[in-house]
Write a structure and sequence with these properties.
The structure is a single chain. This protein has 9 helices and 19 strands. The protein has 379 residues and is an alpha+beta fold. It has a domain of 145 residues: FAD/NAD(P)-binding domain (3-Layer(bba) Sandwich), CATH 3.50.50.60. The strands form 3 sheets. Strands 1, 2, 9, 10, 11, 12, 18 and 19 form an 8-stranded mixed sheet that branches. Strands 6-7-5-14-15-16-13-17 form an 8-stranded mixed sheet, with helices on both faces. It has a 3-stranded antiparallel sheet with strand order 3-8-4, with helices on one face. Helix 1 runs parallel beside helix 5. The longest helix has 20 residues. The N terminus is likely disordered.
């Protein structure tokens, strides 16, 4: 929803750091790959799904090497809104229509189990709100509410200061950068060898080459979300990357948002952090021509939309952070999980829901690769 008077364009200083609010200190990190190493299992991409795959492979008795083109959590996994949501990218009633009621119900249950794992690792179960921006969206939310109730999932109708909609108690929030970096440290402690600033320049059966090193491995898993079609051009017709814009503010003592909120069909989302600051994102639906890009750049036109949204929900505190992240989509909202060539599997394109769905796909990919079963995604 836009205000009268036309779009607001933010003037972004050239000195703006494009640093997410989640990044609150230096990261000691991991070394660069500068030699030839061997392992049973090689993971390309050290975000949430790649690290979940690495830890799962170690637990199954495999030796593991992981590579990242930049730093751990420098991509989508450390620059998102920090929402932890049950289900998949389509709202639940839509998922039942797309994938069938049994498959939608089963996968939703899997995400609830995965959420429990994330809460055990330190994420916060707060519940989340989906709020209707207008009467049309409220009708859609009522359909989702009915479908969730019909299949026995925990959901409540909600009316409060944020508006009207549904409360899903099982959902939660996290600091996504902390979550992924903690997972990286735990995975390294299990024995995985992790390397940063080591982009994969060639991915072949049993081999991944970087600029200064090489990994030989029986199994290779590419676990990348944003920019996946750049790394693997063969997927370019099916995978499309968007630049997701976010802002954060200083603490606002006059605001009290006890649960994360997503509204406008998921195109607007925000949460108040424990210190009282607000992290807010969205707006790409209003500028799709600018949003569909593999470049993780700040987009002033969308940043202006976010400033208007801050004002609309009553935030008075000044903006302290502006940043962007990349995530990728498929046309049918089914994540990618397939074998590219013998021994080389790819997962990704979670359509904005990688925090939970990515972990499930990672576990399933490792299980199937280790057992020799045919690679097949749950959706």
């Amino acid at each position: 929803m836009r205000r009268a008077g036309g779009p607001h364009l933010v003037t972004v200083p050239q000195t703006v750091s494009n640093t997410p609010v989640w990044d609150d200190g230096p990261w000691l990190g991991f070394p660069q790959l500068t030699d030839k190493v061997t392992a049973d299992f090689c993971v390309v991409g050290l975000g949430g799904s790649g690290l979940r795959a690495a830890s799962e492979a170690v637990r199954r008795g495999m030796s593991v090497v992981g590579l990242d083109a930049a730093q751990v959590a420098s991509g989508a996994s450390g620059r998102n809104g920090g929402f932890l949501l049950a289900g998949m990218a389509p709202f639940y009633h839509e998922a039942r229509e797309r994938y069938g009621p049994d498959r939608a119900r089963s996968f939703y249950d899997e995400t609830v189990v995965e959420l429990g794992e994330l809460y055990d690792e330190g994420a916060r179960q707060t519940g989340s709100l989906r709020i209707g921006i207008d009467d049309g969206e409220l009708i859609d939310i009522e359909a989702e509410f009915a479908a969730l109730r019909e299949d026995g999932h925990d959901v409540e109708w909600y009316e409060g200061p944020e508006g009207a909609g549904i409360l899903i108690p099982v959902n939660g929030v996290c600091n996504p950068m902390h979550r992924v970096r903690d997972l990286a440290c735990a995975t390294a402690d299990l024995g995985a060898r992790l390397f940063e600033n080591s982009p994969a320049v060639a991915i072949e059966p049993n081999r991944v080459k970087s600029h200064m090193g090489e990994v030989e491995a029986e199994h290779v898993l590419v676990a990348v979300d944003g920019g996946l079609e750049t790394l693997l051009p063969s997927l370019a017709s099916r995978v499309h990357t968007a630049s997701l814009q976010m802002v954060a503010t200083a603490p606002d003592p006059g605001l009290s948002l006890t649960r994360p909120v997503y509204t406008n069909y998921g195109y607007e989302y925000y949460q108040q952090l424990p210190d009282g600051s607000v992290a807010l994102g969205g707006g790409r639906n209003l500028h799709p021509d600018l949003s569909w890009t593999t470049e993780p750049v700040i987009i002033p036109e969308i940043q202006g939309v976010l400033d208007e949204l801050l004002d609309r929900i009553g935030v008075k505190a000044p903006v302290t952070n502006r940043w962007s992240g990349r995530a990728s989509w498929t046309d049918d909202a089914r994540p990618i999980m397939e074998e590219l060539s013998p021994g080389v599997v790819v997962i990704g394109a979670y359509s904005g829901h990688g925090n939970v769905v990515g972990s499930i796909y990672a576990r399933k990919a490792v299980e199937q690769m280790h057992s020799g079963r045919p690679i097949q995604g749950p959706l």
